Amino acid sequence: MNFELNQDHKVLQDSVRDFVNKEIKPLAVKIDEDHAIPDELVAKMSEMGFLGSYFPEEYGGAGLDMLSYAIVVEEVSKACGSSGVLISAHTSLCSNPIYVFGTEEQRNEWLPDLNSGKKIGCFMLTEPNAGSDAGGTTTMYKREGDEFVINGSKTFITNGGYLGTAIVIASFDRSLKHKGISAFIVDLSSPGVTILKNENKMGIRGSYTTAFAFDNLRIPVGNLLGQEGKGFNIAMDTLNGGRIGIASQALGIAEGAFERALAYSKERKQFDQPICEFQGIQFKLADMWTRIETSKLLTYRAAWLKDNKRNYTMDSAMCKLHASETATYVTKEAMQIHGGYGYIADYEVERMYRDAKITEIYEGTNEIQRVVISKLLLS
Ligand code: CAA
């Protein structure tokens, strides 16, 4: 067993860290305040290859692996959870299903623009009344000649506000339940797509979370992804990979908060000594670090399993479950170590606390992760 990153992964980690410290860290407060990631930053992250890290170079990707992708999302999220989820939702939930389930023609048509960041990708599964019950989709489609016509609504769509490329999940016959569901690749600048609103959220405020309506959205039949009636399976497979991305985001947020708490505990003096001299603070730091390290082991292992073409369904649910709960725990403790200053925006741990909470909720609430894990344990 080798728990060390190899030389390539270490070099990548160093270069992402440098980039994040120069380009993202100084902007993180403003991104939260403005509810937007500057377009120039998205362009710079694209130039770095962050938006196509593990796809082959022939499709405009960086040709790296899943572990590299996890490292990129983790390092970016140390400074800015919003930027981390932009990369994660784009890569795992949009480019990945096109790469895995798309035809060669679809890969060539859609992936270069996604991998270069010319288009930002999103995944349209969730609806106002179909969240955890993903099979309950009421967005409907029918075929008319050489087109599919889609009607319905979608909500909580990460990256939706960019109006780039989407994977849309819709049903042709609700009585067939999940077997009536198909997946489509959609250009969101098409007529028939309306943004209803961009949500005003507690955290990851720089990331778009958008509600949409589809009113007779017409797409070519060639935009069907995979087989008709297999869209639910495509969605589940996509989410299995997506959960490694969210775990990496959560891990990064936790590490970012820990770094600040550790540094602050050495600087801040009370009762004539740095507060890190108090065992109460030391115990907190020990618990925070232990949870971070276990999250990292689970997350990197899930990425390794995916890279090695092993089954990773349970592992991705476990790393997402554990890393997200670690992120909320660590950021809360980091605020506590900062005392009153932790509640002030300038110290940034309050933003990290707000950013962390969503990782327990999206890409399947943690209750859903427990369902996935326990089903597999009992099967
Ligand atoms: N991996 C692969 N296949 C899976 C699977 C998984 N994790 N879970 C279910 N399936 C397959 C089953 O094998 C079965 O396939 P067949 O019909 O071919 O045999 C099929 O899916 C149906 O299985 P179930 O009957 O078990 O499905 P279910 O309806 O009971 O649902 C569920 C199971 C786990 C609860 C599922 O609905 C689920 O994962 N829900 C959560 C959805 C979710 O994560 N939503 C987040 C959306 S994305 C987001 O957060 C927004 C964003 O932009 C970031």
UniProtKB/TrEMBL annotation:
A Pfam family that the UniProt record links to this protein: Acyl-CoA_dh_M
- Please indicate if the UniProt record lists Flavoprotein as a keyword: yes
Q: Which family does it belong to?
A: Belongs to the acyl-CoA dehydrogenase family.
What's its EC? 1.3.8.10
Keywords of this entry: FAD, Flavoprotein, Oxidoreductase
The residues the entry assigns to the signal sequence are none
Gene Ontology MF terms in the entry: acyl-CoA dehydrogenase activity; flavin adenine dinucleotide binding
This protein's name: Cyclohex-1-ene-1-carbonyl-CoA dehydrogenase
The chain positions of domain Acyl-CoA oxidase/dehydrogenase middle read 122-216
Q: Where is the Acyl-CoA dehydrogenase/oxidase C-terminal domain?
A: 229-376
Cofactor dependence: FAD
Q: What class of enzyme is it?
A: oxidoreductase
Quaternary structure, from the entry: Homotetramer.
Q: Where is the Acyl-CoA dehydrogenase/oxidase N-terminal domain?
A: 7-118
UniProt cross-references to PANTHER family, sorted A to Z: ACYL-COA DEHYDROGENASE (PTHR43884), ISOVALERYL-COA DEHYDROGENASE, MITOCHONDRIAL-RELATED (PTHR43884:SF12)
Source organism of the structure: Geobacter soli
